[in-house]
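Lecture notes, part 5. Sequence design as translation. It can be helpful to think of inverse folding as translation between two languages: the language of shapes and the language of residues. The source text, in structure tokens, appears below.
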């Protein structure tokens, strides 16, 4: 039995597409599994390890001096220890609203400490980086961050846009 050249080409094309599709699916599954890996690694770290990692990153991004790095590491270590204690309170069932207020006060206190250690340029860059990280984190992270006012503006804009589209629908009927 001899397969015609056209059918042979179609069979080869189908086999190629199936192989390519399987490889793509496998790559995407691997990437999805690795997406949360950084978060899982951080969860297993001690406050000291997290503070060291953050200090190293900030030293590179902000060009910190040795003295600044030492002081920033101490601030970050203190913050990480406090955050770990707050996470424990959250898991123990502490009032979420009270815990939120405590976290907000903690953020303001540590922000003031960072401002004392960093130069004006470094502090500006530090706040930009912080906002970028919050944006990458999505709405959940932003809800706890400094961008609540921005979120409120977006909601107001969406409400206005919806009310305008509703008005135009009513007019067209």
């Amino acid at each position: 039995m001899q397969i015609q050249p056209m059918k042979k080409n179609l069979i080869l094309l189908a086999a190629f597409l199936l192989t390519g599709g399987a490889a793509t699916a496998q790559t995407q599954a691997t990437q999805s599994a690795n997406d949360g890996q950084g978060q899982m690694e951080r969860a297993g770290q001690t406050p000291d390890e997290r503070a060291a990692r953050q200090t190293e990153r900030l030293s590179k991004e902000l060009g910190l001096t040795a003295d600044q790095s030492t002081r920033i590491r101490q601030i970050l270590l203190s913050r990480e220890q406090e955050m770990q204690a707050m996470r424990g309170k959250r898991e123990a069932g502490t009032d979420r609203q009270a815990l939120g207020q405590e976290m907000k006060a903690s953020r303001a206190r540590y922000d003031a400490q960072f401002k004392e250690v960093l130069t004006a340029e470094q502090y500006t860059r530090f706040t930009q980086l912080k906002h970028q990280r919050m944006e990458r984190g999505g709405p959940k992270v932003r809800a706890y961050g400094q961008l609540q006012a921005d979120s409120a503006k977006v909601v107001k804009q969406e409400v206005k846009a919806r009310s305008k589209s509703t008005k135009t629908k009513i007019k067209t009927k």
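The translated text above is only one of many valid answers, since several sequences can fold into similar shapes. The chain has eight helices and no strands.
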